[in-house]
Specification:
Elements: H1 2-13, H2 23-28, H3 34-40, E1 58-61, H4 63-70, H5 77-86, E2 89-92, H6 95-106, E3 114-119, H7 126-139, E4 143-147, H8 151-155, E5 161-162, E6 170-171, H9 173-194, E7 202-203, E8 209-210, H10 216-225, H11 230-246, E9 252-256, H12 285-290, E10 299-304, H13 320-332, E11 336-339, H14 345-357, H15 368-376, H16 380-386
Parallel strand pairs: 3-10, 3-11, 4-9, 9-10
Antiparallel strand pairs: 1-2, 5-6, 7-8
Length: 390
């Protein structure tokens, strides 16, 4: 089997344009048929208008919206590289995203918040499904509370230190400040328009405080400017958002990729006694567990669980019950599971047509598409890896 795959890989490389190929040479490659273009693209760029008619078709996220929503993360690195190469941010409309969007549109937001959990094998597109839903939230005036990849805090924090005044707790001040910058970038225009205010005074030290009635932007800017208090500011911000949302002052979309990282037995962060700390000892964990509980209204939670979100070890199953463990499962129960699967034949064919249209691969000879299908098993990430630049 390995020899067959290697042979097919060699054949495949003959039809993928090399990285050194010039723009002019790429433009000279045979264009895809016009009929194929109509099959894999849609002019409907508003995710709220997507339906079964657009399934397996690519839509383009306007550059300004892409910058607003994803400047701080939320798209896979290789996908970001593809966006730079093709000078457009295209997402495929897929059924899991449409299912979540349909639930959100029909939801009664006056009821306790509903949690939607994306799950599936590695590389099936959970992150891009979340990106599609985030785009909907941004253009429909949801306040976004988005964590692009929670495992980064548990595996490779920028800096870890003992939390002041919280014995046994570990603070991640630079990660908290980076998240506040991301939150501000996604929501600054909406926050300015809504003029949301804090409900109480927050005292940070003998000389520093944020008075009651301050805007949420002022609260956020304090945490960014005073990194020492970034984690405390994040906790205060999340608490205020829940109160404001429940009071009907705003509607909130929580999106956390790799949510099960909050429930792994250990992190890669060490305490003073050289012992690995558990996620519940990280100050950043608690605000995001707080906002994913069901004790508030006027919001939705879209969470993903992933095998690679775990700190270490081989995960035997991608099912939510297995990845969340007892504590995580009980925290979310009840939730709505959304299974993200490999490409269907129609989606796979659309993907190939997109690369033909971008002149990234040459016009395929007979059997070429079947070779790609066999080698990738129609897994989105595996397919992207196979057709990457040599």
């Amino acid at each position: 089997m390995k020899m067959i795959r290697n042979r097919l890989a060699v054949q495949l490389q003959r039809h993928v344009l090399p990285k050194s190929m010039s723009t002019n040479a790429a433009a000279a490659a045979a264009p895809a048929e016009a009929s194929a273009i109509s099959e894999f693209r849609t002019a409907v760029t508003n995710p709220g208008e997507h339906s079964a008619l657009q399934v397996a078709k690519f839509y383009t996220i306007p550059a300004e919206q892409k910058k607003q929503i994803f400047a701080g993360g939320g798209l896979p690195k290789q996908y970001e590289q593809q966006i730079k190469t093709f000078t457009e941010a295209c997402l495929m409309v897929r059924n899991p995203a449409l299912e979540v969007l349909d639930y959100i549109k029909k939801a009664d937001l006056s009821k306790p918040v509903v949690r939607y959990v994306l799950y599936g094998e590695n590389g099936t597109g959970k992150t891009l499904t979340m990106a599609h839903v985030l785009h909907y939230g941004a253009v429909n005036d949801f306040l976004l509370v988005h964590v692009p990849w929670a495992p980064n805090w548990m595996k490779r924090p920028k800096e870890a230190s003992n939390a002041a005044g919280q014995e046994g707790m570990i603070d991640l001040p630079f990660d908290a400040a980076a998240w506040l910058v991301h939150f501000k970038g996604q929501n600054s225009k909406l926050l300015q328009r809504l003029e949301l205010k804090t409900s109480k005074e927050y005292v940070w030290s003998k000389r520093e405080s944020t008075p009651a009635g301050s805007t949420l932007l002022e609260l956020v800017e304090h945490g960014i400017a005073r990194i020492k208090y970034a984690s405390e500011t994040t906790a205060a911000l999340i608490s205020e958002i829940k109160l404001l949302s429940t009071a009907g002052k705003c509607k909130v979309m929580v999106a956390i990729d790799g949510f099960n990282a909050f429930f792994h037995p250990v992190t890669r962060i060490f305490s003073d006694n050289k012992q690995r700390v558990t996620p519940d000892k990280i100050t950043l964990t608690h605000p995001f567990l707080n906002i994913t509980s069901y004790d508030w209204t006027n919001g939705v939670c879209i969470l993903s669980v992933d095998k690679i979100a775990m700190t270490e070890g081989h995960m035997d199953s991608y099912m939510p019950r297995y990845l969340l463990g007892t504590e995580g499962f009980e925290h979310l129960d009840p939730f709505v599971p959304i299974h993200v699967e490999n490409y269907s034949d129609k989606e796979f064919h659309s993907y190939i047509n997109y690369y033909l249209d971008r002149h990234w691969i040459n016009k395929t000879p007979k059997g070429f598409e079947e070779q790609l299908k066999f080698m990738s098993n129609k897994n989105p990430y595996s397919l992207m890896q196979l057709v990457r630049a040599l």
